[in-house]
Amino acid sequence: MPNPMVAFQGERGAFSEEAVYQLLGRNARVLPRENFAGAFQAVVKREADYCLVPIENTLAGSVYENYDLLLAHSLHIIAETNLRIVHHLVAFAPTTLARVRRVYSHPVALAQCSRFFARHARIEKVPFYDTAGSVKMLAERRPEGAAAIASRTAARVYRARVLRSHLEDHKENFTRFLLLARKRSASPGANKVSIVFSTRNVPGALFKCLGVFALRDIDLTKIESRPLRGRPWEYFFYVDFMGNLREERTRKALAHLKEIAEYLRVLGGYSSAPR
């Protein structure tokens, strides 16, 4: 689709916006939303063609809210991308690193830059609601001696300066994003499938469900459980596995699982992102 409109959570310049451009190119248009639910609703209400949401980070783990939103909406996963998270120290002239006394950012971003703060003990960490939002706030208020930790895209959007790059403690800091649409994609080259299922709370039930994949040598790449609301101590299981929905072994595995599980839904078939 040329010039697609893509909704995401956060302010302009968020890492989600970087992921949009990485996956779809610079011709993509972006629609910021205050929260993840708003990004999903933008697609449901046809305000956007797609939404792009984070589902897991290699350091912080899964984004549980988006697993729940996947179940609550009839949207389909049609693509994914893995974005390397690079944290930049961003400020406005005449602020320099020597003048910085406070740094604003999302709590997760601040925590991922602990070595930087250890080396600069004079700098106070100030939690803020959003990485890009912290740069937006600096652009509007221009507080003295203040900087933000955010993406390079945020610096470009708000015309700020990047004082330092690669503040993150770990280079292996990646966030996996899912692209969601109203219609299911049926790409012949797709090699990954995401599903969600529930099962009876009896001994061996989960073992039998996962066994349908093991019997066919299907590689599971992710499994996540979320509470099944209204039924305490029971769960939905989200599973990603390598395969194509047109393959015989994939179709047989899902048919077998449907016989065992109480509930089964295919969330999408798509091409896996390069590792």
Overall description:
This protein starts with a strand and ends in a 5-residue tail after the last strand. The model has no long low-confidence stretch (mean pLDDT 95). The protein folds into 3 domains: 5-85 and 173-181, Periplasmic binding protein-like II (D-Maltodextrin-Binding Protein, domain 2, 3-Layer(aba) Sandwich), CATH 3.40.190; 88-164, D-Maltodextrin-Binding Protein, domain 2, CATH 3.40.190; 192-270, Alpha-Beta Plaits (2-Layer Sandwich), CATH 3.30.70. It is elongated. The protein has helices spanning 15-24, 36-44, 64-72, 107-111, 114-119, 131-141, 152-157, 205-214, 248-260; strands at residues 5-9, 29-33, 50-57, 61-62, 76-84, 88-91, 102-105, 124-127, 146-150, 161-164, 174-181, 192-198, 220-227, 235-242, 263-270. It has 275 residues and is an alpha/beta fold. The strands form 3 sheets. Strands 1, 2, 3, 4, 5 and 11 form a 6-stranded mixed β-sheet that branches. The relative contact order is 0.17. It is 29% helix and 32% strand.
First-last Cα distance = 25 Å
From the alpha-carbon coordinates, what is the Rg to the nearest angstrom?
A: 21 Å
**Amount of helix:** 25-40%
Structural class: alpha/beta
Mean pLDDT: 95
- Taken in chain order, the helices and strands follow as EHEHEEHEEEHHEHEHEEEHEEHE
Key attributes of the depicted protein:
about 280 residues; alpha/beta; D-Maltodextrin-Binding Protein, domain 2; Alpha-Beta Plaits; 3 domains; 6-stranded mixed beta sheet; 5-stranded mixed beta sheet; 9 helices; elongated
